[in-house]
Amino acid sequence: MSASVSASVRRTAAVTLVASSLLFAAACGGSDSKSDTSAKSSAPSASAPAGAAKSVTEAQLKAALLTANEAPAGWKADPEAGDGVGKADKGDCQKFLDLMQGQPAALGATARQTSNFDHGGQQVFGFDADKAAGYLKGFDATVATCASFTVDMDGEKAPATVKPLTVDKAGDESHGYELVIDMGPIKMGFDNYVVRKGAALSTFSAKAKQPGAAPAAEFKPVTDAVAKKLDQAIQA
């Protein structure tokens, strides 16, 4: 097998892997947390400065997840697990991969709950004090910085682009961005939504039907639902 054909096969394998498990970080309703956070109080820690965001409980994170009935029509629960999108060549740009599919530690979070569907996936992260706000600080500027970068997926490097998506104001802050990864003959696009409420972040990623085009019609309704559930969960 020639080197070029071999490389093409590896790229195709990488595309298949990413297309089947990218975004959707763990089995539906899965969780990741530090051993001391499973019973975290909703009250601020004694060491937190006055006015700091209250910590959130695992129950609140779970309550912020979309259910199958709240997902867009035709979407099905998908228990397939993935373990990461890849590594960005620019440190600041790793954020856009981790928000799609990332372990809590990568974001500086203490816990995570996930809900996965065949066309999209949700992650809800809990942070200590004001670390959630700190993680998103300068988000819009970082989108501009990461207009183009490279993603390394198990040795296969592919160019990637990020551009902002307009989303409704929600929570304490909300952001949208499209990530497109160019795997040669195939371009994969993902429309992403991030909303913060206090010490919690809820993210939603959906496979773009047409990379580079406007998000699908169901993107806005589902992001509205994500924001509403986070707001209700944190206020509970």
Task: Describe the structure in your own words.
The longest helix has 19 residues. The termini are far apart. The chain has a 9-stranded antiparallel β-sheet with strand order 1-3-4-9-8-7-6-5-2. It is built from 7 helices and 9 strands; from the N terminus they run αβαβααββααβββββα. The chain has 236 residues and is an alpha+beta fold. Helices cover 27% and strands 26% of the residues. It has one domain: Protein Transport Mog1p, Chain A (3-Layer(aba) Sandwich). A hairpin with a 2-residue loop joins strand 5 and strand 6.
Write a short abstract of this structure.
The chain is α+β, with helices and mostly antiparallel strands. The protein is built from seven helices and nine strands, in the order H-E-H-E-H-H-E-E-H-H-E-E-E-E-E-H.
Jot down its keywords.
7 helices; Protein Transport Mog1p, Chain A; 236 residues
